[in-house]
Amino acid sequence: MSKEIILTGIKPTGTPHLGNLVGAIMPVINMANDASAGQSFVFIADLHSLNAISDRAAIARHTREIAAIFLSLGLNTERTVFFRQSDVPEVSELTVLLMNVTPKGMMNRAHAYKASVDKNVASGTDADAGINMGLYTYPVLMAADILLYGSDLVPVGADQKQHVEFARDIAGYFNNVYGPILKLPQPFIRAETGIVPGLDGRKMSKSYGNQIPIFDDSAELKKKVMRIITDSKLPEEPKDPDESTIFQLYQHFATRADIADLRKKFESGGMGYGDAKKTLFTAIDAYLSAPRKKYNELMATPEKTDAILAAGATRARAVAVPMLARVKSAMLG
Ligand code: ADP
Ligand code: TRP
């Protein structure tokens, strides 16, 4: 890989679960830690959470949790600039400046805004009911995040692709008027890791309430795993592993050999769901036990986490301040 600048953000809107771990957190850590890649920036997008959450204690808690999760799972903060979005005030100033090269019609087309409007229309309320300007202008703040650090590649889930394309368009509009100052970023859609199912077999998601938080303690984790919904097949009956939530989850946490072994046990019959759940619990617990210990230590000493984020913000500002100065002087002299 060439030395491209990689940047991504994570919104602190909830306690991350195993779906987030497999689908987003581990891929980001692996990409950021890749020694052959260029400089990486990973930040917690607390300003972006404000359009949906007004409880500052909840935002602070989720910010610490996410920071501790990344640190305990091995994000290398010497390589990666790891910080909290709101600690870099330049991003807010750049947002105000970029507003002026951002067409309003582009915001009207944003998926997240359109989804909220569609929901309102379907329920017969005013199209813009409950929609604040934070949600409406979300893509401009995100463009500022991306453009402030001269990002080349922005790893995101498929749902965020449009936002990165908007950032690229906004940079293009800016450069057309003011000269070639902003780098045009590209989305990097994370490889499909497969959907992690939740306790009820649907996609694991906060919105379904079927999630397993990453760092539940062992006893709680076991309780949740034992609650996974299964059909009523008897232990001796053969079972289709590809239809089983237990097996689907197991695939993300066990070795290849152990996965093949459990598949065989499902297919040949003789293993009950109770035993399969115990096998699954043991695998997840083993995968998470060392990072969990680290996570608990970090959560018990928040000043350590805060200091790491503060050091990250200092490094981020070393890039952000001169970039903002260039943009501002191009626009205002
Ligand atoms: P939730 O559905 O719980 O609100 P988010 O939408 O905040 O989760 O998820 C953030 C990212 O985590 C997604 O872009 C996706 O990459 C990943 N992710 C979330 N849930 C899952 C899942 N069940 N399986 C795989 N990846 C997931
Ligand atoms: N909007 C992203 C999400 O909901 C989070 C985010 C904010 C982000 N700023 C970013 C992602 C900049 C990549 C780059 O997941």
Task: Characterize the structure shown.
The chain is mostly helical and 333 residues long. Helices cover 55% and strands 7% of the residues. It contains 14 helices and five strands. The chain has a three-stranded parallel beta sheet with strand order 1-2-3. A two-stranded parallel ribbon has the order 4-5. β1 (6-10), α1 and β2 form a beta-alpha-beta unit. α3 crosses α13, α4 (90-98) packs across α8 (138-148) and α4 packs parallel to α14 (302-332). Tryptophan binds at residues 7-9, 11, 45, 48, 142, 145-146, 154, 156, 160, 163. The site of adenosine-5'-diphosphate has 15 residues, from α1.
Feature tags:
single chain, 333 residues, 3-stranded parallel beta sheet, binds tryptophan
Strand and helix layout:
Blueprint: E1 6-10, H1 18-33, E2 40-44, H2 46-49, H3 56-72, E3 80-84, H4 90-98, H5 104-108, H6 111-122, H7 133-136, H8 138-148, E4 153-156, H9 161-178, E5 186-189, H10 218-226, H11 245-250, H12 256-268, H13 273-300, H14 302-332
Parallel strand pairs: 1-2, 2-3, 4-5
The structure holds adenosine-5'-diphosphate (ADP) and tryptophan.
Residues 19-20, 22-24, 157, 159, 193, 195-196, 203-207 line the site of adenosine-5'-diphosphate (ADP).
> Percent of residues in beta strands?
5-15%
**Radius of gyration from CA coordinates:** 22 Å
Class by alpha and beta content = mainly alpha
Bound small molecules, which ones? Answer: adenosine-5'-diphosphate, tryptophan
Termini separation comes to 38 Å
- Roughly what is the average pLDDT, rounded to an integer? 96
Helix proportion of residues, in percent?
A: 40-55%
Shape: globular
Taking strands numbered 1, 2, ... along the chain, how are they ordered across the largest sheet?
1-2-3
Number of strands: 5
> How many separate helices?
14
Low-confidence stretches: none
The run of helices and strands is: EHEHHEHHHHHEHEHHHHH
Q: Main β-sheet: number of strands, strand sense, barrel status? A: 3 strands, parallel
